[in-house]
């Protein structure tokens, strides 16, 4: 019995080899082509910054051509970045029309500020940067750049400092902004899965 036990004991060398094999295996499991059920992504409340309704997350990810089934995390996040980029572009057009149609000068100023926050120097630039970092495999960077998108959007809706009082905005802009932010949360969640494994 004792002999059996001793014989089964791994030597120091083989322990070290085993540890390296395990490390290698775990780094493989972080691989970009990992497939995670979208149910698992969308149900994970800890992954999402804000309360993203399950349906919003599920429908968005499943709207990828061919459906989400079997799609790896990088493919899903790349798709979501594209959707968010299109929504930001639409929001910029919407803000342009608000500026043109606004008779109220303080609202007009507010919309002009929002245009900056949504533009190349703001949300649009950050979502593009997030996409560039994705292609470089920098998933932490993807998360950080996406979080900057939401900061720019918050700056538009709520002002840049806590002392700014958000203007009561009668337009649909705050709702649009909040919808985009929820999709950005999905990008951040998937990026987090990619860099934490
Ligand atoms: C302009 O819009 C703001 C925000 O909705 C409102 O508080 C303000 O009363 C409006 N001013 C005028 C002149 O209508």
Descriptive report:
This protein is mainly alpha-helical and 197 residues long. It has a single domain, classed as Invertase/pectin methylesterase inhibitor family protein (Butyryl-CoA Dehydrogenase, subunit A, domain 3), CATH 1.20.140.40. Helix content is 71%, strand content 0%. This is Pectinesterase inhibitor domain-containing protein. Belongs to the PMEI family. Pfam families: PMEI. Keywords: Disulfide bond, Signal.
Give the structure's gist in a few sentences.
This protein has 197 residues and is mainly α. It has helices at 2-8, 12-29, 38-43, 54-62, 73-101, 105-118, 123-135, 139-158, 173-196.
Strand content: under 5%
Spans of at least 5 consecutive residues whose pLDDT stays below 50 are 1-9, 16-29
CATH homologous superfamily caption: Invertase/pectin methylesterase inhibitor family protein
Indicate the radius of gyration in whole angstroms.
23 Å
Organism: Arachis hypogaea (Peanut)
GO molecular function, one term: pectinesterase inhibitor activity
Protein name: Pectinesterase inhibitor domain-containing protein
InterPro entries: Invertase/methylesterase_inhib, PCW_Enzyme_Inhibitor, Pectinesterase_inhib_dom, PMEI_plant
Output the keywords.
single chain, 197 residues, mainly alpha, Butyryl-CoA Dehydrogenase, subunit A, domain 3, disordered N terminus, binds 2-acetamido-2-deoxy-beta-D-glucopyranose
How do the helices and strands line up, and which of them pair or pack?
Layout: H1 2-8, H2 12-29, H3 38-43, H4 54-62, H5 73-101, H6 105-118, H7 123-135, H8 139-158, H9 173-196
Domain Pectinesterase inhibitor: 33-190
Organism: Arachis hypogaea
Pfam family, one: PMEI
């Amino acid at each position: 019995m004792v002999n059996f036990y001793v014989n089964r004991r791994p030597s120091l060398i083989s322990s070290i080899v085993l540890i390296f094999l395990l490390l290698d295996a775990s780094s493989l499991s972080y691989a970009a082509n990992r497939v995670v059920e979208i149910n698992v992504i969308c149900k994970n409340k800890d992954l999402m910054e804000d309360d993203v309704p399950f349906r919003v997350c599920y429908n968005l990810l499943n709207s990828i051509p061919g459906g989400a089934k079997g799609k790896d995390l990088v493919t899903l996040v790349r798709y979501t970045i594209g959707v968010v980029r299109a929504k930001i572009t639409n929001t910029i057009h919407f803000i342009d029309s608000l500026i043109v149609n606004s008779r109220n000068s303080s609202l007009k100023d507010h919309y002009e500020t929002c245009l900056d926050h949504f533009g190349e120097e703001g949300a649009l630039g950050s979502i593009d940067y997030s996409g560039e970092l994705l292609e470089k495999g920098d998933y932490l960077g993807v998360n950080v750049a996406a979080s900057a998108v939401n900061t720019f959007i918050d700056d538009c809706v709520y002002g840049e400092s806590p002392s700014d009082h958000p203007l009561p905005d009668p337009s649909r802009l705050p709702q649009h902004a909040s919808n985009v932010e929820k999709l950005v949360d999905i990008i951040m969640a998937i990026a987090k899965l990619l860099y934490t494994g």
